[in-house]
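ok trying again, last paste got cut off:
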Amino acid sequence: MKGKVLFSLGMAAALLVGCGNQSITVSKNDVLEVAQDDANVESKDCSDVSVKKGVDYYTVKFTTDKGSYSYKIGLNGHIQSRSYNKSVSGKTSKSETKTTEQKTTSSSFDDKQQAAIDAVLSNMALSQSDVKDVQCTLNEDGSQYTVTMSNNGSPIQAVVDANTNAVTSTIVGQ
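nice, full thing came through this time. structure:
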């Protein structure tokens, strides 16, 4: 599903590049697919689906057997914020907010690695202080970085194009 979304958005972007200064605007179906893809769920597993268009972003909400999700997605298809309330025994519990300060391990990254890490943080609407255990490795052919980190105990793994710093995939919590 991620491949379809990224390919569709990529093709739309490529087509619009030649159209002057027009900005990319995605549809309600596009943002719903982006949110479901980010949550790693399929449409058939979602209920209470709501997609509302605001002035600068869409609000997407849905519920699964895992919990309820809420997204704020820009008109360009980029996730601006996300919220997840975990379901416990069929009932949704409130999100837990950690108030303890997290210690981050400071590793030395070169400028290109840091740019890849920054791209993932921006894509996830996180800051460096929100994450720990950050690692960044370049694949054998030098075309992409794999960035791993954790946020509030949830592991995050993202793949970033080494030439453009575009985040091509993100997996949260697996």
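cool. The helical segments are 2-17, 28-39, 111-123. The first helix runs from residue 2 to 17.
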